[in-house]
Amino acid sequence: MNLRYLFSMYSLSYPKVIIYMLQTSEYRTSPYLNWLWRTKDFSKVQYRKSLEPTNKAKMLLLLLSSGIGAEILAGIALIIFGSISFTDAAWCWPIGLALLLAYPLIWPHLIIIPLEFGRVVFVLPNQSRQIKAANKIFASHPGVKIAVAGSYGKTTMKELLYTVLSEGKRVVATPANKNVSSEHAKFASGLDGKEDILIIEYGEGAPGDVSRFASYTHPTYGIITGIAPAHLDRYKTLAAAAADIFSLAIYLKNRNVYVNGEAEAAKDFIKPSYTIYTQEGVGKWKVDKVEVSSKGLNFNLKQGRTTLHLHSSLLGRHQIGPLALCAVLALDLGLKKTQVERSVAKTEPFPHRMQPYELGGAWIIDDTYNGNIEGIRVGTELLKELSAKRKIYVTPGLVDQGEETAKVHSLMGKYIADAKPDLVVLMENSVTDYILEGLRKAGFKGEIQMVGDPLAFYTNLETFVAAGDLVLMQNDWPDNYA
Question: Pairing mode, if any, of strands 257-260 and 197-201?
Answer without folding.
Answer: unpaired
